[in-house]
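Model it.
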Amino acid sequence: MSSQNNFLYFNSNDINIFYRKNENGGGMDFGQDYINIIKNKYGPQEKLFEFCSGPGFIGFSLLGAGL
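Modeled.
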């Protein structure tokens, strides 16, 4: 997690996800558990829907992981 121009950013698999401090609902913490679950149980997916995604921590992390 780093700061740039009043935004913070979280890097996941070479994708920078920019957000404001109050926009982290856990996606960059426990939300990262989804990467291994999706990888091990389902493999790469053509589409996904991240409900109430905020900055999209989970979705962008899955994208960066090639899932």
